């Protein structure tokens, strides 16, 4: 793995654990075992690194969501796969969705990072809207988009509460409650 990828991998874990404001080039350099000048060579500013992280996270998310729909026509499998990916971050050292934790610090983010975080939200809402068009065709497109946003917000919120409590069971119970209440198909 090249230096840029090593930096991005370590930075992703740092942000998912501490948030964007907790991202430090000095600590990142120590973690990776290089000088902070080397990080600046690949990412001149913290905003450049944050934007690259959020863009990659969105690209990885897009690939994951496309694969979910490409492997089966079962919408229940799609939704379970969707909620499971958020759960996996919690399983992995009680971390958060990268763009979710960055969104919590939105006012502190440079414009280029905000743009990429917004792109992740748009990806999720668009994908969920497409799924809802199949499993809830009685809704019009505006209603599907509004429900998609509510589902995305609910899943991110369940992850946040579970992380704060240090209890993945909270996530599981909350997602199941969403299903029973009809929020999540």
- Give the name of the CATH architecture of the domain at 54-181: Orthogonal Bundle
- What is the CATH superfamily of the domain at 54-181? Tetracycline Repressor, domain 2
Q: How would you describe the shape?
A: elongated
Percent range for helical residues? over 70%
Cα radius of gyration in angstroms? 17 Å
According to CATH, what is the class of the domain at 54-181? Mainly Alpha
Oligomer: single chain
Search tags:
9 helices, elongated, 185 residues, mainly alpha, single chain, Tetracycline Repressor, domain 2
Explain the overall architecture.
The chain is mainly alpha-helical and 185 residues long. It has a domain at 54-181: Tetracycline Repressor, domain 2, CATH 1.10.357.10. The protein has helices at 3-18, 25-32, 36-42, 46-71, 75-91, 98-103, 111-135, 141-165, 168-181. Helix 5 (75-91) runs parallel beside helix 8. The protein is elongated and about 55 Å long.
Concise account of the structure shown:
The chain has 185 residues and is mainly α. It is built from 9 helices and no strands.
Q: What's the layout of helices and strands?
A:
Layout: H1 3-18, H2 25-32, H3 36-42, H4 46-71, H5 75-91, H6 98-103, H7 111-135, H8 141-165, H9 168-181
Helix pairs in contact: 1-2, 2-3, 4-7, 5-8, 5-9, 7-8, 8-9
């Amino acid at each position: 793995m090249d230096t840029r990828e090593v930096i991005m991998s370590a930075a992703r874990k740092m942000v998912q654990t501490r948030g964007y404001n907790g991202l430090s080039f000095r600590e990142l350099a120590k973690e990776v075992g290089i000088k902070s000048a080397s990080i600046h060579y690949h990412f001149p500013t913290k905003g450049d690194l944050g934007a690259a992280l959020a863009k990659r996270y969105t690209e990885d998310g897009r690939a994951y969501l496309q694969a979910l729909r490409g492997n089966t026509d079962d919408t229940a499998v799609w939704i379970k796969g969707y909620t499971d990916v958020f759960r996996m971050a919690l399983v992995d050292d009680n971390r958060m969705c990268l763009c979710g934790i960055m969104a919590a610090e939105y006012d502190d983010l440079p414009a280029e990072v905000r743009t990429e975080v917004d792109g992740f939200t748009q990806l999720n809402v668009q994908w969920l809207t497409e799924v809802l068009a199949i499993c809830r065709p009685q809704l019009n497109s505006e209603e599907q988009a509004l429900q998609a946003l509510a589902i995305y917000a609910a899943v991110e919120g369940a992850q946040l509460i579970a992380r704060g409590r240090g209890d993945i069971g909270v996530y599981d119970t909350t997602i199941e409650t969403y299903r029973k209440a009809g929020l999540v198909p």
